[in-house]
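Exercise 3.2. Students should predict the tertiary structure of the chain below and write it as C-alpha cells, then compare their answer with the key that follows.

Predict this chain's 3D structure.
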Amino acid sequence: MTWTKWVRPGYFGRQRDARVAHLNTQFGEGNWELRWVETVDKNDVKDVGLDFYSASKLCYEESYFQYLKDRKDDLSFITSFGECYDNAKTNVESGLDYSKQEAFSTHIQDIAVRNVLKRRGLPFKGPKDLLLQIRSSDSTGYRFGPGNVPFYDPTLITQPSKAPSWAKPGSVEDYWQSNKWIMINDIAMARVTGAA
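Answer key:
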C-alpha cells in the first residue's frame, strides 16, 4: 500500500472530532492518517513522516526535554504541583501514554512534561489535588504551553506556517501544525480522483 501526502490541514482544536468524521466520509475510514513530515523537500510525496506516537515522543517531548534541560527554577516550579493537565483534569489519567486522549481536543504537553520529569528522575512533590494547568494565557502553566516552548530544530518546520495565531513562530505548536499532513492510501487516492 502506498501512502501519499494529500494536504496540510492545520489546527483542529475543538473541531477534532468533526474533522475526523469528515475525513472518514471523504476518504473512507482507515484510508487516511495524520503524519508529521520533517523533510525539507516539500515536493517529496514519498516521505510518510511520523505517526502520532512517534511525533509526540521524538519531536514534541524532545523539544520539552531540551527546553527544560537547564531550567532548574522552572523544573522546581512544575514539580511543586501534584500533577499537570491541559484541557481537562481527566488528562492526568493519561499518565505517560500519548495515545490516551479522553478529552474534547488532543492534549500532548501534559504528557510530554510527565515524560520529561520521568526521564530526569523528578517526581511531582505537591499535594495530589494541586494541579498545574498548561494551557491558555490565563492558566498558571501558560509559559510551558506548546505555543511558547521552542521546537528543538526550527529549521525543520515546514513553511508557510500553519500555526494558530496564539503560537509563537518556531514553537512546538508551530511544528505540530505546520508539519502535520493528511496522508492517503491508494484506495483513498482512487476514490478522490475517480479512478475507483
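Discussion points: Helices lie at 16-27, 52-68, 72-79, 109-120, 172-178, 186-193. The first strand starts at residue 3 and ends at 7.
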